[in-house]
Amino acid sequence: MKGSIIITAFFIAGIVCAQTGMLPLGIIDDNWSFYALCLLMFCVGMSVGNDSDITRQFCGIDPLLLMLPLVTIAGTLAGTFAVSLFLPHRQLTDCLAIGSGFGYYSLSSIFITQYRGAEIGTIALLANIIRELVTLLLAPLLAARFGKLAPISVGGATTMDTTLPIITRVSGQSLVIVSIYHGFVVDFTVPFLVTFFCSLA
């Protein structure tokens, strides 16, 4: 929760600085987002490769639970498609690209900004931050109303890191490795799905 608030605060501070002219526009170069993306992908690869036990732990998951990331992806895209019907001024591919962020706001918003511009990238950032905040704030209610897997599915790509503590608390220790596996798989699909939908006309 604290991390999400800090990220949101920095985002708002960036808007304020740009609107008030506190930072010269000349220091902002389009290449910076590409460099930040490369560094981010490197850090993700390092964090995954640094865990030598991750493959062994994943092999012990119930075969039915291995399908959870696919259900999350399919449900998110179906929901995004349904919402796009009420947004005639937005392209379906833009909506699907935003939904394909699955809560991974830092990566998906950079990709979308590169492909579709800053406006859609900003919408993606806000949509995915809100998804994480919903998981952090409503996880107990989701687990009580829809079952222990609900907070994991709603958390999307964040379930292996930022939302893992609250998911562990409300869903139980037995689903910790499922939550990490879910976040890992969904996280891995983000760059592929986002770029796929952004590349469509």
Summarize the structure.
With 201 residues, the protein is mostly helical.
Approximate shape = globular
- Portion in helices: over 70%
Radius of gyration: 17 Å
Low-confidence stretches: none
Question: Tags for this entry?
Answer:
globular; 201 residues; mainly alpha; single chain; 0% strand
Task: Walk me through this protein's architecture.
This protein is mainly alpha-helical and 201 residues long. The chain has helices at 2-20, 30-49, 54-59, 68-84, 92-99, 105-116, 118-146, 150-155, 164-171, 176-199. Helix 2 (30-49) packs antiparallel against helix 6 and helix 5 packs antiparallel against helix 10 (176-199).
What's the SSE blueprint?
Elements: H1 2-20, H2 30-49, H3 54-59, H4 68-84, H5 92-99, H6 105-116, H7 118-146, H8 150-155, H9 164-171, H10 176-199
Helix pairs in contact: 2-6, 4-5, 4-10, 5-7, 5-10, 6-7, 6-10, 7-9
